[in-house]
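QA checklist item 7 of 12: single-chain prediction sanity check.
[x] sequence parsed
[x] length recorded as 130
[x] structure emitted
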Amino acid sequence: MTPADLIQQYIKLRDAVEARTKAFDVEMEPYHAGMTAIEGAMQEHLNANNLDNVKSEFGTAFKKTSTRVRVADRNSFNEFVAQQPDGLSYFTNAVAKEKIVDYVKEHGCAPSGVDVTYVTDVQFNRPRSS
């Protein structure tokens, strides 16, 4: 197969997957809506009866609390952290990718203690229609 054949076939397959995925998502909408309605009804039941879970011969329904944390006001948070004796413990050990990429471009290497890996894959685009 020529590169043109490979590109054509790849885009054809990708379009088929996308179309089937959309059709599947539409087909699943009533199931997801039903599950959401049942979750709401069960939560009402648990709350009304002051329960954390309920068991039956078919399985168990239970409450699970998830916690999400994000910085809403960076300046305010930075002031808070500066006042804490263990201020740095409020941060995780993550690196700002964009900042590191800029550093590598400027200095030709990563900062000490940071690994940078580049992964190259192949992507396909259809020709733009006029």
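[x] summary fact logged: Residues 3-48 form the longest helix (46 residues).
[ ] second reviewer sign-off
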